[in-house]
Amino acid sequence: MNLVVYILRRLAISIPILFIGTFLVFCMVAAAGDPLGEIRTQPGVSQEAIDNLETQLGLDQGIVPRYFDWLGGFLTGDWGISIAQGANMEPVFPKIMSAFQVTIQLVLAAEIIALLLGVAVGVLAAVKQYTPIDYIATTTAFIFFSMPIFCVAIILKMYGIQLNVLINDLGLDSLLGSPFLKTTSPTELGAGDGFFDSVILWVGGLALPTLSLMFISFAAYSRFQRSSMLETMNMDYVRTAQAKGLSQARVIMRHAFRNALIPVTTLFSVNFVTVVTGAIITEQVFAWNGMGTVLVEAVNRNDPNTLMGWIVVISIAVVIANLIADLVYGILDPRIRVG
User: Is the pTM of this model over 0.70?
Assistant: First the structure.
């Protein structure tokens, strides 16, 4: 019950911050330029048509009324309309949700793999401190930690193309590609080829962009876990457990590992934002129609409703990631439940 109260208290803090943040962002988006600037210069577009578009987008009102109109619609599921192409319009909600389904697969896959692998390697490097295993893990983490995401993505794409060429030379179909141009799930991929072939296509499309984000996150997780594990192993309660004659495995897993996970849990909530922003670049490299593509198009067209929908969805995802971290805090350290 104390943990539930703790989570509700965190939610009570997050929701007002979200409202304040959306208002500030709305003001900045509104001041960025005229969404209809390109349409106004097109030949054959009447003033009446422009006036109708201004009314649809709420541009004929002030900033504050526009914000509350947008907020009321957003809370009821009406996220406004998007300037898709020229004077054409499309609803923002299905556009954002379709893109989010694509991106969340990439982000979750990369974070889960990076977290599991990073924690395991960090613990192993700490236990085997100053051994070849530690040096290899540390060097690998530093290499990936120092590389920008676009560099990792381009390198993987280059080798992926070469691998596909080699596979094609053997008379087989390419395994690595970008199947998410118009699809979002295995059942939608290669519908006529069977479910197993569809899963292979889905995994093949997920592999390279997931690895791009995973390598960067893995470097951070492994370094933090190693440092936290080394600090925990020097604690008095761990030394006491060792002095009692407990096995090394029991000391590590029952006494050191659980407490060493707390700093990594903090890193997870922070790193989630990094992975989401990295996904924007990764999607451009691997031709994914996800949230990155939506953001780039919205910025280029100065599309206010799409930009606001994108920002709010990502903000909510970050809040949820922080709530998950808070929940894990309470599981790892019971003292937080009554804090």
Answer: yes
Which residues have a Cβ under 8 Å from the Cβ of 226 and sit 6 or more positions away? 121, 122, 123, 125, 126, 134, 137, 138
Q: Are 238 and 232 in contact (CB under 8 A)?
A: yes
The answer to whether the CB of 99 falls within 8 A of the CB of 291 is yes
Pull the structure tokens for residue 156. Answer: 């993987």
Which helix (H) or strand (E) covers residue 90, if one does?
strand 88-91
CATH fold of the domain at 95-301: MetI-like fold (1.10.3720)
- Contact of 255 with 238, CB cutoff 8 Å: yes
Contact between residue 273 and residue 120 where contact means Cβ atoms under 8 Å apart = no
R_g of the chain, CA atoms, integer Å? 24
What is the arithmetic mean of pLDDT over 89-98? 86
* Separation of alpha carbons 316 and 85, rounded Å: 28
Lowest mean pLDDT among 47-51, 82-86, 199-203: 82-86
pLDDT tens column, 181-208:
433 444 444 444 566 666 777 777 788 8
Measured distance CA(55)–CA(285) in Å, rounded: 37
